[in-house]
Amino acid sequence: MRQQERFNAMMEDGIALRRHMASAMFPSVLRAVGLCEAALRGGGKLFFCGNGGSAADAQHLATELLVRLRSRVERPSWPALALTLDPAALTAGGNDYGFEDVFARPLSGLGRQGDVLFGITTSGRSANVIKALRVARGMGIGTIGFLGGDGGSAASLCDVALIVPSSETARVQEAHITLGHAILELLEDRLIRT
Fold this sequence. Notes:
By secondary structure, this protein is of the alpha/beta class. It is 55% helix and 13% strand. The protein is built from seven helices and five strands; from the N terminus they run ααβαβααβαββα. The chain has helices spanning 3-24, 26-41, 53-66, 87-96, 104-110, 127-139, 169-193; strands spanning 46-50, 80-82, 116-121, 142-148, 160-164. A five-stranded parallel beta sheet has the order 2-1-3-4-5, sandwiched between helices. It is globular, with a radius of gyration of 17 Å.
């Protein structure tokens, strides 16, 4: 396939996924916004976790809440934390408990009932994200999944599972950040109205 054709195919795949999200995911997006709104209004926090590119997305979305999402909107900083930020905690957790526990262990110490955890996994099968979702459920923490493919094992552990129906990691990651920005913009709209 020539590069022009390959490029066009990538763009068309992304467009098709966005159309799917627009037509099928709005009710789930609103449920996610509602969970986040309840957490923040109740004095809770939003946590994010994922691996690789999804770790970068976790950090990106948490920062949008802590610092600023839209430059024209002036509002307070909101409590959000990417569980991927602390290399000492990640490496200690991996060394002392195993990589499967690198998100669950800090969540169990920092999280409280009424908080929300975003688990980001393009396959829905990342063992450490699944373990964090399981721990969150046991603690009364709401769970939102940014997932790909068929949602994998993570889907059943999510109060809201946003499943991007693709096995192309890059397209799934692009869709996840689009969904994340949409949820945060709708959340910001709700929270700054009152």
